Amino acid sequence: MSHHRHAITSAPLYLGQALSIRPSCIFARPVYEGSGFARTAAWASTSQNLRQNSTQGLISSQAAKKIRNAIEWLCAAAPWQRVWDIESKQHYNFKCNFITLTIPAISNVVNHSTFVRTCLNPFLTYSRKYFGLKNYVWKVEITRLGLPHVHLVTDTFINHKKLRKSWNKILSSKGYIDGYTKKYSSLSLDQYLLLNPPNEKYDIEHRTSAYHQGCLQGWTQPNSTDVHALSKVKNVCAYLCEYLGKSKTKHFHRKGRYKVLRFRSNMRLWGSSLSLSSSNKLSVHLFPNEISKVSKQLFNNVIDSKQVQSVADAFGRVYNIGTLFFVKAEQWATVLKGTLYDIYTNHLLKIRTNVANYELSLA
Q: What does each of the 363 residues of the chain score in pLDDT, given as a tens digit?
């Protein structure tokens, strides 16, 4: 771990090391009495974004890192479990699910600035009460048609029929299903099949059944949700981080050009449960006499590391402000053992039980 001086002070007193722990990495920086904390280039970029006081309808690179961090902790804390679905009468191997909440393409104009407050927040409140939702990360994106949709990752198993019914109920209360109901209520079976022709995925029997089911429901239950249990995905965390951790809203090809899709307002674009938020970081302070316990585990030929440097000052000087160690999932409990591993697993337990943030020492 680096003991480099990172602030211009006279004879600073070395107080130890501050560890910031994530499932995939550990950042260690020296702590001195009365010294400031040198800022990295990433921090400087984030500060510039804050001074502009605008998301410009996009996820910032710093926010994307926070999303990936929250997903890492969610996947690390969620155990594999065998769940029983009452409606389908089947058992499932379950760890995390990937839910998409959409708005029918045939709908009234959606107010972007109030979408999270009037649609997503009521859904999360309902899910916490009736589905037992605890740990989750969500991100809002925009479609080509200009409609917002939500990607939600959680460790709570939710039946897909109950999920759709609850989401549609919220959309209906805002008038976002009226256009869908009006259009399909006037269609005959032949007209419906023309709009939704059979394909390799859905044959004519499935389409016909969907039509009759829609008639029975009064065309009030559009296919507005999608759920994937991710049980067949080899690396769930990497898959979710790549999908949700993008700093830009998706692109699409149009007349040979790619366009970045943006929201029309500075609405909140992502969030998480408190258990996975930045306020629930895992931070550990090592006093000088405790450093050797951890250094032997981190400095070896198995765990990769690199020095993190500060932004250059007015004289072009940079300082090593800490060391970043890259940890693989299987290295916890094998390479990293003892008290450090106990602190890590204790934090995972606190996420599962929704305990708020805390700071630990190895004492």
A: 655 554 444 567 888 899 999 999 999 999 888 665 555 555 445 445 444 444 455 677 788 888 889 999 999 999 888 888 877 788 888 888 999 999 988 766 777 778 899 999 999 999 999 999 999 999 998 887 788 899 999 999 998 999 999 999 999 999 999 999 999 999 999 999 999 999 988 999 999 999 999 999 999 999 999 998 776 666 778 778 777 766 555 444 444 444 445 555 567 889 999 999 888 889 988 888 888 888 888 888 899 999 998 888 888 888 888 999 999 989 998 999 888 899 999 999 999 887 654 444 443
Using alpha carbons, list the distances in angstroms from residue 212 to 187, 198, 219, 333.
Answer: 11, 15, 10, 55
Instruction: Domains for the chain: give ranges and CATH numbers.
Output: 14-54+278-361 (no CATH), 61-177+220-268 (3.30.70.1910)
The answer to whether the predicted template modeling score (pTM) of the entire model surpasses 0.85 is no
Distance CA 78, CA 98 (A): 13
Q: How many CA atoms lie within 13 A of 301 on its CB side?
A: 0
